[in-house]
Structure formats: C-alpha cells, structure tokens
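Our platform keeps sequence and structure together, in a single record for each protein. Such a record has a labelled line for the sequence and another for the backbone structure tokens. This encoding replaces a full spatial description with a residue-level series of whole-number codes. Below, we set out a record of this kind in full and without editing:
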Amino acid sequence: MSLLIKLLYKRIGLITPTIIISIFAILASLWWNAQLSTIINTINAHNFVSIRTIIIAAIAIFINMGLAYSLNMCSGWTCETLAHDLRMGYAKYFTALSLAEIENLNAGEQLSRLQNEIGDVSGFLGANLFTIVNDLIKFIGTFSWMLWLNPKLTLLANIPTAIIMWYTVYSSKVIGKATYRSQQANAQMNNFADTLITIFPVLRLFDANLLLQEKYNTALEQWESASISQESKRAKLMSLSALLSCIPLLLLFLIGGTQIIRGTTTIGTLYIFINLSGNVSGVMMNMPGRIAMFRGFSANMKRIEPFVSIEKRR
C-alpha cells in the first residue's frame, strides 16, 4: 500500500480539511439530535417550546446542511485529484522508458491495467475512500456519545455488534477471495485476446481459428463463472449481514421501552438512540462489502504500483 500512502501524502493539504469537516459534521449532527431530544421531552411533558429553543434547532439544521455540502464538495474534489494523480503517474512511467523497454512491453497487459485496475482504483477512490473514513468517524463519535448518555442501553443494545463484527471479518475474506479470482480470470482473458491479435497472421496461415476459438471461449467461461460466483457470494453474505443489523434496533425498542416505563430514561433519549442507530449498526451492515472492495482495491494497487510514478510532495 505504499502507492496509496504516496498519493495521500502528496495531497495531504486536501485530505486534512476533508477529515476535519467530517468530524465537525458528526458533531453538528449530534448537537442537532440533542436539540431534537429536548423538544420531544418538552412536548411530552406538555410544556411550551420556547422560541429560543426553536431558533437554536433551526441554526443546527442550517449548520448541518452547510457542513454536508462542504463535505461532499471537498471529498469529491480530493478523490478526483487523487485519481488524476494516479492516471498521470501511470502515464509518466511510460514517458520515462527507453525505446528498447517500450518495444518489450506487452500492449495487451498494459491496456488491461488501464481499463481494469486503473479504472477500478479510480472508481474506489471516488465512491468509497472518504465514505469509509466518514463511516468510521460517525461510528466512533456516535457510540461514544451514546455511552455518555446511557451506558446500559448502549452496551446491551449493541452486544450483537460483536457478532456482526466477527461475521464481517469472515464474510469480507470470502468476498475478497472471490473478487481476486474474478480479477485473475479477467486478466487471463485479456492476455489471451492480446495473444490472438499478435499471432493473427499465423492463425490465418495454419487455419487454427477453431482451435483457438475454443481456447478463448474456455477463458471467457472461466471469467464469467468467477464473476457470477463473486456476485452470488456477495449477495448472500450481505443479505445475512442486513438481517443481523436489525437485532440492535429491536433491542433498542425492547430495552429502551422498558427503561421509559420504569422512568430511567426519556422518550427523547430513546429517539436519539433510534435515530442514530444507523451510525453504529448501519456501518456494521455495510462493512463486509466495504472491506471486500478495499481488498480488491489493495490487490489492484499492488498490480499497478510498479507502473506508476508519483512525485514526492514539495
């Protein structure tokens, strides 16, 4: 992952503000939920909600909107810049080669890397890099605040999270292996296609079209089978993960409702736990797929690392 470290270090000036905005965004979200809890408890007590409370809640809403917009803008700009650096680094590597080295290159392999590995890495950077970071910040911030509000409810409702985390590790490995097999089959098919293009005149001379067509169809079927297997395993494992993620929410209703009846907590506090449960259990639900994608991203980065030249940050 040294290539990723180089990319991140080169654009540390963009990455740092994005992470800082993400931290402020979760703090603003928690502040808004605290205001909403106060309003719910006030109404439940049949009291009048003051104008000051309404104004503070409105301010919290606008701050959340501004931070969400800023986070989307900064993360999108940063990810596209990282993807641009990667593509330019790939191009710079080839411009530095001698003519003899260029003649020895396999055009099919390099085209496959450009269309598959570089494309997949760029897609991951744009869609998942800061999503994973933001989810981690949400998880830590929300779970810590819940512990401060009601430690008993937080711990009891999230005991299944340990089971979900174990399942996450297991399923991510299975999905990661299936993804790697699919990528390997795709690379073999592309290499075979390049070989066909290279020896096309020989094929015509010896009339070997049918023989090589069978070989190509075999490679194509292997790639198709590996891709179907990957998507099938991902769907099955993610479905069970979604089922497991419902357990903490059910426990919140059961334990939280019991505490309200006994008077040890309020409806507003329970609403906070339900409203923010996605920041905890939702992250766990999405984690198997995210880890699997990151494993595929890591494998692609290792494949293209020798062919990417990244300048050091000045």
